[in-house]
Sequence to fold (221 residues):
Amino acid sequence: MVKKSALKTNLTIRIGSAFINPVNNLNGLWDKMAARLPQYHLQFIPLENDNFKFPDTYNNMGKKVDILFSPYGMSSVQDKINFIEIGHFHFTIMMHANDPLTNKEKITLGDLNGATVDMMPTGISKKVDNIYQEIERQNLNIKISKIDAHYTINTFNKFSESGQYLLSLSCWNDILPGLVSRPLAIPYSIPYGFITTNKPDANLKLFLKILQSEVHAVNQS
Fold:
């Protein structure tokens, strides 16, 4: 009955999209959603402008954006959002294409001894904090250059101009020409999927129920 009543109206779901978190190619997911809920209109909202600051966007999910596709690891907003996990992205080290470490298949923290690495500050992500702790445990002389807690395309533009190494994720391996990524040999990863409000209205709740069922089907295939 809920599904039938929802299909009688034209409902809009606002999906946040950014250059570094594209939502256009998700195994045909949006086509499947459109087939199951044909009266739902999907509106894709560009996030890389002054109207969307982080973590404010997470804290206000449901006001300007209903769903955000993104890596997720910010500990401070866990009580304000609902997360539908799709999979995990592994940590990488990004560098310039002419860097000697591009010859290695994987990068260890020891390889970075004496280097400067751009990383988000501590206290934002437990997984990143684990890397800080591992650097300390190994007593490595790695200079940390702290950057914004949330990566945008400007993070990579700034790094491309002046950075030596950047802690990155496997989803961003081909983000900019001239930059190369190699897997970081540590047992940590960041989950990715859909972030939404933990207090959805009835229409969004139905959409999320169908979305979760489709994500589950993809993960089982």
